[in-house]
Every structure is written in structure tokens, then in C-alpha cells.
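Posting for a labmate who doesn't have an account.
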Amino acid sequence: MLTAQQWIDALGLEPHVEGGYFRRTFQADHRPPVRTPRGERLLLTSIHYLLTEESPIGYWHLNRSDILHFHHSGAPLTYHLIHRDGRAESVLLGQDPHQGQALTLAVPGGVWKATSLDGGDHALISEAVAPGFDYADMTLGDPDDLTARFPRHAALIRRYCRPDAARGADGSRRRQSADGSRTAGPPASGERDE
């Protein structure tokens, strides 16, 4: 079995803002774009995504598109989901159905998601996103905002939020935008998806 670094090198993966490594593998630019409330998007995109022992967490984030996740190699991943109604769910994505692992996981748009590699050197998956992924359609989780909205899941939320997504020293809210920059203040109009 290949190591995490061998996968990174072989697939040309780069660090992802939500944690782990990725590379876009397909975009349906040969088809007409899809209209969404946030603008035109590609019909479909896909990526390879890798979590490693050194980068074992895909931090809380919300996508507005539907995403299919496919496990390819390595250890299983735990997907932590918080649905719009506040219900939390954990799903194990991996290669062994006898151990309760799913080969494929569908996560509808509007569901908060975090991922953890709980053992092993790596886990390699692919994701297919429809309508196609755009950073403008992803919101990284702020621990204070998420725990206020879902207080009964506070421990789970804080465990998988980006360390730099918390409030600043002056108490002002710091948001981590999808491009990695930090901004203060409330979300931009339309940023929340509820």
C-alpha cells in the first residue's frame, strides 16, 4: 500500500483550506452551466482528497452543493454531520462493510460536515460535487457560531473546528473565508445557509 506522501506526490495533491490535501480531477466545462442562487456553477466537479496522520482532520464546513464521497485507500474516515434540524450523525467511510463501513456517502448541501482520520497513515477518497464546487459556496465553521446554533453538540463542534476560527483577542468574531483570509464581523449577506 502506498504511503500518504507517495499519494501526495503521485496525484499532485496540495493543502486544502479545510484540512488535508486535494486536487481537482474533473470539471464539466463541456456542458452548459447550472444557475444557482449564488450564480452560475459547473454541472459537476470532482476531487481527490487525502487526510494524513499529520493532517487528520477535515474541519467543520458547510457546502451548498450535494457531495458524494468515495473511499479508495487507507484507513476508514469518520464523517461527523450536523443536519439542518440539529440532528448529529456519524458515518464511517471505508473498505469493510462487515465493520459497518460504507464505500460511498452522500452529504446533501446545507449539512455541516467534519471528517477525522482516527488511525492509520492516511485515507484517500474522491468527491463528486453537484452543482460543481465553488469556494463561494463553502462556509468554514466558526466554533462560537456553531455552538450557539447547536449547543447540545458543543464538544463535537469544538473538537473539529479550525484552531484559528475562534474569536480574536479583542472579542470580535474572526471568520475564516474559503480562501484562507480572516475577516472580522458578521457573515456577509447570504453567507449562512439555513
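Reply:
Got it, the C-alpha cells are right above this. The two ends are 42 Å apart (CA to CA).
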